[in-house]
Amino acid sequence: MTLTSFGPANRIKRSAETHPLTWRLRDDGEAVWLDEYQAKNGYAAARKAFADMAQDDIVQTVKDSGLKGRGGAGFPTGVKWGLMPKDESINIRYLLCNADEMEPNTWKDRMLMEQLPHLLIEGMLISARALKTYRGYIFLRGEYTTAAKHLNRAVEEAKAAGLLGKNILGSGFDFELFVHTGAGRYICGEETALINSLEGRRANPRSKPPFPAAVGVWGKPTCVNNVETLCNVPAIIADGVDWYKSLAREGSEDMGTKLMGFSGKVKNPGLWELPFGVTGRELFEDYAGGMRDGYKLKAWQPGGAGTGFLLPEHLDAQMYAGGIAKVGTRMGTGLAMAVDDSVNMVSLLRNMEQFFARESCGFCTPCRDGLPWSVKLLMAIENGEGQPGDIETLLGLVGFLGPGKTFCAHAPGAVEPLGSAIKYFRHEFEAGIAPVSAAVPLWQGRS
Fold it and tell me: N or C, where is the chain less crowded by C-beta within 10 Å?
């Protein structure tokens, strides 16, 4: 997978004016360390925030920019920051970076951490200043060993330069930053499960309210933001709200740019920083180059395994939350996957649901029991042993595990692709239903 392919045949020039996240990237894919980062205007935004802006002004600027969370949920970042308590007597607060990037088909945060670790650190430093947090943690997916090495080196460089630690930039503000590697659980992408894991507890989601802004890590006010979200903060502070909003295409309700990608049997799989509002067709044809010779596009997911499948005719949808919602699913992480015409949708869904069933924390009954049930039914259909009524049972599970029916959003995300696959490719599921005379009920030993 090409992590530094940012335009059709790499022909698009990246600049600070149009590509705030990626313009500093090196052509050789190596990491940008402190000296080079500062030579490319790195930490200038942090110096501005510390010298010229009140803490509340930083929060308001981010709120006015329209920046939304880039982890998949899309909650307004400034609003989330505004939930942190205003009481100055609460002197212990935490900032957590959610870097537990385990969504299948998503690798955007990995690229940022491996190649631009100081961009994340600068984003966290400005955010910590705004939120009055004295300690931060980057909760990192354990398998991201290169990212861990690069982040730890960058943290040490920033400490040595007086950009982390005590009395940062002579401001009297202290901020310590630590890299914490997780043990490998998808559910840690949910912010309260992440908090439990960081505390050394089982990674179960917590009941909300209270929200982390009130009761988070070790019972203290805590803000959790995604890697890509935090990496947007320096450019917003440096260049302003109006500029940031101008980056998005006309018609988009989401502001700025987004790391988007395409994987699958496309000619140029990769990752690109693009303005919100580009169409799926531009992403697929102009950047990913369309399907490889000999393959046809059958379906695609717009933003990770937890988003619904779309058809080729949906490629004209604009890539922002509302644009993708118009065609019946979610933007998610913005990294799309092409499904080619050689793929059987039942087998694909069985594989996905096995992953989601395995990664369930097991806390609530619909998720704990419903996802394995869907796997058993899909395995039977895949083997041509499905029973009449199995498809209806699967659709029933899609409803029972939908939004608002489970403790967290794990199960709703898990069944969204299942429901859309049956909607668009029901005939492939029906092909796995055995004749009535040969059907064996699940309770009689069907595996």
Answer: C
Q: How far apart, in whole angstroms, are the C-alpha atoms of residue 155 and residue 124?
A: 11
- 257 residue type, one letter: T
Question: Considering the domain 21-246 in this protein, what is its CATH number?
Answer: 3.40.50.11540
Nearest to 95 by CA among 66, 68, 129: 129
Question: Domain ranges in the chain?
Answer: 21-246, 260-340, 345-444
The two structure tokens encoding residue 347? 């087998």
| pLDDT per residue of the chain (447 residues) written in tens, 0 to 9 | 344 444 443 446 788 899 999 999 999 999 999 999 999 999 999 999 999 999 999 999 999 999 999 988 889 999 999 999 987 777 899 999 999 999 998 999 999 999 999 999 999 999 999 999 999 999 999 999 999 999 999 999 999 999 999 999 999 999 999 999 988 789 988 999 999 999 999 999 998 899 999 999 999 999 999 999 999 999 999 999 999 999 999 999 999 999 999 999 999 999 999 999 999 999 999 999 999 999 999 999 999 999 999 999 999 999 999 999 999 999 999 999 999 999 999 999 999 999 999 999 988 999 999 999 999 999 999 999 999 999 999 999 999 999 989 989 999 999 999 999 999 999 999 999 988 665 555 555 555
According to DSSP, residue 266 is labeled B
Residue found under tokens 């006309």:
250
Select the CATH number that applies to the domain covering 260-340 from these four: 3.20.20.80, 3.10.20.600, 3.20.20.140, 3.40.630.30: 3.10.20.600
Annotation: CATH topology of 345-444: de novo design (two linked rop proteins) (1.20.1440)
CA distance 394 to 380: 12
Q: Residues, the chain, total?
A: 447
Sort residue 207 into left (φ over 0), alpha (ψ -120 to 50) or beta: beta
Rounded CA-CA distance 176/5 in Å is 34
What gap in Å lies between CA 153 and CA 144, rounded to an integer? 14
How far, in Å, CA of 94 to CA of 115, rounded? 25
